[in-house]
Amino acid sequence: MMSDFQLCPLPMLRARALLILLITAAALLSPGAARAADDQTASAAAAPLQRYLLVASEGLYVVEPDGSCSWAYNPTPYQGQGWVEYDDLVYDGCSLPNGHFLYATHRYVREVDSEKQTVWEYRVPGMTEVKTCVPLPDGRVAVLNSSEQAILELESGTGAILHRIPVSAKGTDHTRYNSMRLTPEGHYLVALRAEERFLEISRDGRTIQSFPVDGLPVMARRLADGQTLCTGGFGLARFDASGKKVWSFTKDDAAPSFPMIYAAGFLELPDGRLLVANSDWHYPEKDQNRVQVFLVDAVKRVHWTLPATAFGDWKRSEIEPRTGFVEHRVCLVQPLP
């Protein structure tokens, strides 16, 4: 009697052998290796970032198209010069048209040049916090002052206060606010941290709109279609002009592709896709922060991710004392010419 093997035609034998080989390879491939392969595929697909500014808690980095870092600025680590050890943690920043860089920490907003020299700064006393900075079209710079509970428009170069907009908020100096951005209408979108909402306010202090969210609010921006996108511990939420939530991208939505920790700074690309920093402050599980930035579209499809491995050895990052994990704490990315 002939064996089953002998009864099989040659093409079928080849197909069966290939199938066995694939099954064996899949069995040998560890979950970590499979995940790394998925990350590499996602990272290589239609990368929206060529040259860009990376803003993280420990500093600012200019990253070239080949992934190398051509310029880095890290504020002097804590040496007893402030009230607490996190005085110099960076929360916000951007590249300016003149080639300088503007960034905000807990205690100050500072402009530095390409030689890393301070051009000017606005510093707050005591436990007051600033956290965010917004360059304005007329050359001013807007900041938040947690003690005054106000948006302050400063004169660039001197830090002189030129305009004050009261924004009362619940909480402490540390928990009142997060990021702030300007709308095309000239209004401010402010993250009210303790109140778990975003506030849209005019320059004359009128409340235009309020956007409640289910968790820590981080940043809001007005999109090209007039809707407002908000980010935070809840993920992403889009609101229409009436204040109704019309779209979201949650941790559950992200889970098939990667763990989303805190959706932080973001920008809208010309095609409407959203480039979002996945900030990893205090993440609880090892390797949960493997994706640092991601690109998502309106149907919740993830097109691209920037893995933590892209930072190589040029990014300082931070060690979380409670877990011992490396935290990259990316705030946002800004494409550069």
Question: What are its keywords?
Answer:
four-stranded antiparallel beta sheet; 337 residues; Methylamine Dehydrogenase, Chain H; mainly beta; globular; disordered N terminus; 4 helices; single chain; 12% helix; 40% strand
Q: What is the CATH-assigned architecture?
A: 7 Propeller
Number of helices: 4
**What is the CA–CA distance across the termini?**
74 Å
Kindly state the mean pLDDT as a whole number?
87
Using the CA coordinates, give the radius of gyration: 23 Å
User: Which structural class best describes the helix and strand composition?
Assistant: mainly beta
- What is the CATH third-level topology name? Methylamine Dehydrogenase, Chain H
